């Protein structure tokens, strides 16, 4: 039983071993979809639970009515596949190829002067939004360069899929204020379950003297997804009265858990993905998020994007191993 992996490259590396040994992996990070395995439970977001709702919001009058799109990401599996899905989705909404600019940078990239100049020039052609799948530390110089170039959130909003509370720790948030992130959980969400979740983590971090968190304990989306997965696995083991993989898999179907996001999260009976609410948050000066939009309730994951030709013919859940 593994709770972990952080990138799709890691998950894809682990997957053959987990399947060969008939083990279990709970993967807690948003990902590009297009994978279903008997031996994996995906507690992070599929594209229709994060990326596509974010684009819908930015297209709407409420979100600014974007007409042109910059798809900007770090050069690895998740950004490229997600942007392939988003490009197809945008085209299904009538957006022309000439109104989509797609660019990638390597891990650790720090010089965004040319890219931001390109975004500024591109945005002169109509209301523009940036969809960012930039990973890790590269976000800091990117947002700083946006500020240097005078590109404000109200003019060219950036919605990020990999920027959360932990990424904003210790960062000068002035250039980021007003920009957006799409997740299935924010620490700032107010409800009793989240209050208890934050307190339990804070108490643990202080008791264990965890670096960074003992003084400023933060929670974020992947932590919530992991938390849900651990509890659902425990419930499944109790239901099955066994830790046997096949028995636990059967008992996981339809499991529910009251999530810190404020919903009763459910594990889909067929596709091993959680039903999750989607939130769009605006970055605040203190590194937290103000929720400006949310779905009316939980959204069922669609791992195989119907916007890519042929994917609409994929089954809900494959017999046997991953596809």
Q: Report how far the terminal alpha carbons are from each other.
A: 21 Å
How are helices and strands ordered from N to C?
EHEEHEHEHEHEEHHHEEEEE
What is the CA-atom radius of gyration, in angstroms? 20 Å
Major β-sheet profile: 7 strands, mixed
Identify the strand order in the major beta sheet.
5-4-6-7-8-12-13
Low-confidence blocks of residues: 315-323
CATH fold field value of the largest domain: Rossmann fold
Describe the protein's architecture and organization.
The chain has 323 residues and is of the alpha/beta class. The protein folds into two domains: 2-48 and 188-299, Rossmann fold; 51-183, Rossmann fold, CATH 3.40.50.2300. Helix content is 32%, strand content 17%. It contains eight helices and 13 strands. The chain has a seven-stranded mixed β-sheet with strand order 5-4-6-7-8-12-13, with helices on both faces. A three-stranded parallel β-sheet has the order 1-2-3, with helices on both faces. Helix 7 packs across helix 8 (245-252).
């Amino acid at each position: 039983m593994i709770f972990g992996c952080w990138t799709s490259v890691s998950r894809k590396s682990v997957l053959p071993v987990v399947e060969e040994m008939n083990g279990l992996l709970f993967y807690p990070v948003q990902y590009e979809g297009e994978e279903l395995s008997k031996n994996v439970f995906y507690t992070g977001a599929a594209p229709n639970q994060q990326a596509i709702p974010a684009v819908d919001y930015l297209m709407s009058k409420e979100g600014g009515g974007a007409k042109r799109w910059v798809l900007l990401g770090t050069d690895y599996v998740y950004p490229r596949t997600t942007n392939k899905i988003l490009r197809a989705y945008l085209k299904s909404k009538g957006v022309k190829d000439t109104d989509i600019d797609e660019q990638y940078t390597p891990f650790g990239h720090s010089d965004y002067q040319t890219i931001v100049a390109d975004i500024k020039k591109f945005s002169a052609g109509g209301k523009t939004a940036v969809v960012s799948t930039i990973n890790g530390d590269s976000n800091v110089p990117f947002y700083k360069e946006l500020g240097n170039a005078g590109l404000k959130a109200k003019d060219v909003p950036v919605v990020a899929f990999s920027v959360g509370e932990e990424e904003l720790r210790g960062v000068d948030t002035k250039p980021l204020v007003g920009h957006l992130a799409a997740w299935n959980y924010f620490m700032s969400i107010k409800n009793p379950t989240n209050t208890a979740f934050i307190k339990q983590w804070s108490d643990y971090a202080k008791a264990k003297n965890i670096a960074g968190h003992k003084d400023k304990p933060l929670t974020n989306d992947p932590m919530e997804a992991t938390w849900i997965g651990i509890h659902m696995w425990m419930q499944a083991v109790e239901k099955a009265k066994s830790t046997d993989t096949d028995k636990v898999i059967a008992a996981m179907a339809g499991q529910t858990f009251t999530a810190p996001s404020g919903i009763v999260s459910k594990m889909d009976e067929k596709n091993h993905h959680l039903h999750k609410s989607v939130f769009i948050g605006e970055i605040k000066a203190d590194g937290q998020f103000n929720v400006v939009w949310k779905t009316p309730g939980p959204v069922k994951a669609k791992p195989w994007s119907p916007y890519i030709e042929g994917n609409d013919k994929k089954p809900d859940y494959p017999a046997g191993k991953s596809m």
